[in-house]
Amino acid sequence: MTVYKTSAQVIYQIEEELDEDEKEVIVFLCRDLAPDLVTKLDLRDLLCTLNEKGKLSPAGLAELLYRVRRFDLLKKIMKTDRSSVEASLVKYPQLVSEYRVLMTQLSEDMDKSEVTSFSFLLRDYMGGGKTHKNKSFLDIVIDLEKINLISPDKLDLLEKCLMSIHRIDLKKKIQKYKQSALGASYVNGIQASLPSAGWMNSGYELGLKNGMSKEERPICGQHGISTEPVKISIQESEKSLPQVPTEEYRLKSQPLGLCLIIDCIGNDADALKDTFISLGFEVQYSKHLSTEEIHQTLFQVACLSKHQDYDIFVCILISRSDSENIYGIDQPCSGIPLHQIRKFFTGDACPLLLGKPKLFFIQSYVVPEDHKESNSLLEVDGKMPYNGWRPRSSTGPLLHHEADIFWSLCKVNVSVLERSPSPPSIYLRSLSQLLHHPEERRCSLLNLHIDLNNRIYDWNSRVGPEEQYSIVSEHTLRKSIFLSQR
Predict the structure, then answer these.
(1) Quick one: 428 exposed, middle or buried, by C-beta within 10 A (0-12, 13-18, 19+)?
(2) Concatenated DSSP letters of 199-251
């Protein structure tokens, strides 16, 4: 990490760039450093005071930015990057206690309704029936600390309340913290504290020509697929991160989640329905929809309150399309832009799925440009789901609204449907077979998808250009996904 003197100008620049939620988190993280100052000074003065007292080194300031995921400020102002900060946290003592980090993680993982429920449960423990209406989770924690109901070694009440609001996953985080605290080690919490959320592209599009040998395929690792990150304007944009997440998404709910299948072709949905039922999903199956009905179905499913109780969402869409839009059975007509399908379920449009994995498998039968009307394509301007829920803006740092998405788009020429009887999709059939196979089920989703691509390659090597499939895969997953117990 580059070493330089922390000046008032640097602190001023950082404070100007932070939003109110980020400032709240940093002040909370600094409470142990200056318990007599945090309630009296704003963030700028607090950081300057800590700096003057020798309690805030440049490395410490960088850690605070790391904790609120402002990797852009690490680069722009501190002249360092995420990997350098993580390396420093491994080698040297952390500025912030694991307890403070844990509280900010819990804050981040709770939505507004859960904080309201949590606050209500505290009525029996606060004098005079005091409630914490409109307060953030961190504000409530501070109030509980003041009356010694919560502390680094006193978390039973917190666990009890989390159990009452059915957040067993957060209770497990506390239990993990307790275990690590016994060893007095800070190292274990580094990766868990701030996972990344940048679009990652598998870097492959299998428009492979007939006759290409396997030796000519791009090779990277044992599965023979090269990967590289896609650069987009999310906060972190410096160095590419490890492409295989090390943590796992929680998949413990019963059912695991909703699997929405929309089949406007009619060849593949039955096998897929059975597959995802066997995996523990609730399956909603719609067949032969118009474009408007597809749009309404996506909207209605995104508004379902049951997402709150589920751990994952899957969308499988099978229909005709052109290069940019997908149609229902009323093609040619106004199409739905492919990129808009996932927008129904991003964190800002569907807050109940915020922080949960959202998987999309799209089989597109591409209609040539000269087979559709020139004015047939219109950008869909329908309402986006909202449902009265808000993204986490008052309870902790925000996850990027496009985090936790896996997108697999497979295209094949629509002419394959003209054969009688029309064949099932090789892509979806292979996906179903891999998910049914016990050994493949124990693979992570990313590795399973690599095996899926190998099957598509083998198919493409045996058929002519009009029958070949191409796959584009992207993801913003922050953790690994295993669709069944290993």
Answers:
(1) buried
(2) -EE------PPTT--GGGS---TTTT---EEPP-SSS--SSPPPSS-SSB---
Query: How far apart are alpha carbons 144 and 161 in whole angstroms?
Result: 13
Q: pLDDT digit string (tens) for 109-140? A: 888 888 888 888 888 777 654 555 678 899 99
* pLDDT of the residue at 214: 37
Determine the length of the chain.
Answer: 486
Instruction: Give the residue from 275, 424, 449 showing the smallest Cα distance to 361.
Output: 449
Instruction: Identify the bridge partners of residue 361 per DSSP, sorted by sequence position.
Output: 316, 408
Q: Are 262 and 283 in contact (CB under 8 A)?
A: no
Let me know: does 56 contact 91? Beta carbons within 8 Å. no
Greater model confidence, 265 or 38: 265
Other beta carbons less than 10 A from residue 218's beta carbon: 10
Q: At what angle do helices 82-91 and 58-67 cross, to 10 degrees?
A: 110
- Looking at residue 54, what DSSP letter applies? T
**Of the candidates 82, 75, 72, 79, which has an alpha carbon nearest to the alpha carbon of residue 18?**
72
